[in-house]
Amino acid sequence: MRKSYFIFIFLLALQKISFSQDTLPKISVTQISNKVLISWTNPYTSITNIGIQRSYDSTKYFTTIGSVLNVKAQSNGFIDAKEFLPAQYYRLFISFEGGTYLFTESHRPGLDTMKAIPNVTAEILKPDQPVQPTQPVLPVQNYFVPSREIYTGLDNNIVMSLPDADKKKYSVKFFEDDGTFLFEIKKIAEPYLTVDKVNFVHAGLFRFELFDNRVLIERHKFYIPKDGKPIPLLDEQGYELK
Fold first, then answer.
1. Distances (CA, A) of 149 to 78, 128, 212
2. 95-154: pLDDT as tens digits
3. What whole-number distance in Å separates Cα of residue 35 and Cα of residue 38?
């Protein structure tokens, strides 16, 4: 009976996503039974991260409760697993290529879903246009930008994307965040490889050094989240934001 109930809620949520979405930076926040659905339509092409945030205040004290794996999807949504409380507010944090970002306006579910509550920290961005500062000017928070060559994939394994690997002499060294050497792959001949996350033993931040014919060409980091968890919001240095 309980399983059937949640299937019903899920199908109802899908119906809400199809017919009640707003186009970013606008969002729809809807109470469905004792859960809350946050849904939207995405017109942007340069999004790097979407975080769903919840607070009991309309303008502050927001915490991230989840993130979206497929940020490029045109239609998307998120169901808050926590039981609905009338005083909850929701918004999205959206980051873009180049380090710019915006917060959507905050919304309260239920009858007030379509009534936006002004957010003094919100910055509204037109599709594919740079963020314009609002007044008062707030400190700009830059977020972690992963490497294009070595990064964490959707399955949390490490992806090495080196299209010209057959013409180069690539090798890579992996380290703990404190610089402790882990292991080395001395010859990379394939343009696309994955390194299973189990090789890194634990979740967290790691470093790598990429070489071409023993010449260092990139030194960067990547983050492996805990099993079943998405990558959290990371600051410019790759450390989890608290």
1. 30, 24, 13
2. 888 777 888 888 888 654 344 444 433 344 445 555 444 444 444 456 778 888 898 887
3. 10
pLDDT in tens, 154-178: 778 898 988 888 888 999 999 999 9
- Which residue in the block uniquely carries the two structure tokens 């039974």? 33
Query: What tokens does 72 get?
Result: 């490029």
pTM to 2 decimals? 0.46
54 pairs with which residues across the strands?
A: 63, 90
For 24-27, which contacts have Cβ atoms below 8 Å and span 24 or more sequence positions? 24/92, 24/94, 24/104, 25/92, 25/94, 25/102, 25/104, 25/105, 25/122, 25/124, 25/125, 26/104, 26/105, 26/116, 27/90, 27/91, 27/92, 27/104, 27/105, 27/107
pLDDT at 135: 43
